[in-house]
Amino acid sequence: MMNLVAIDTALENCSVGLSAGGTTFSRVRTIGRGHAEILMGEIAALFNEAGIRPDALDRIAVSVGPGSFTGLRVGIAAARGLALVRHLPVVGISTLAAHAYRASLLSQDGRPILTLLPGRGGEAFGQLFSAAAEPLEAASNGAVTDFAARASAEDFAVAGAGAALLGPGFSPLHLDSAPDISTLLTLGAVLDPADHPPKPLYVKAPDAVPQAGARIARR
């Protein structure tokens, strides 16, 4: 039986979960910011609670976004660090995929599921999945009104915190923002690390980019 630890610092939660010997342990704190200050302490406390050592792990799972730029870097760095010391595989799981999996457990009509997270300035991050939570399209960033129009026209089920922005006429399967840590444990155990590397999924390019015109030419 696989021993697996999962880490989520993508959004407002600092969450860690551990599946060991058929028993699941978790610690979830909603903090908004400051993940770097408490994450390693939460991981240590989780191991103490479960009564196992890090060298008993078989795999690590970590949320890779979309989410907070800083939060993602904290969680992914921690996962990579633990994996490097123990020579363990790491599975990167997108926030949108985690929301789709949870929504698939709640859905009863077989419709495709559009998972959404709020963006800035009337935009959202979204991705379309099958009723079984298999990705049908890549994650994208766009206007909430565009996502609403498409979801209505194509009769998608919707889920995730961004679904609250769509307006009347929708009944979201859930309105989660941060991914559920038990979902990360479940997906982390079955997804192939080779196909799901621990790399940040930002979807949208950074607002600040280097000014090419201001660079000094190399000689």
Automatic annotation (TrEMBL):
Residue ranges occupied by any Gcp-like domain in the UniProt entry: 32-148
Coiled-coil segments on the chain, per record: none
Example GO biological process: tRNA threonylcarbamoyladenosine modification
Source organism, top-level taxon: Bacteria
A GO cellular-component term linked to this record: cytosol
SUPFAM superfamilies with a match to the protein in the record: Actin-like ATPase domain
Name listed for the protein in its UniProt record: tRNA threonylcarbamoyladenosine biosynthesis protein TsaB
Organism of provenance: Kaistia soli DSM 19436
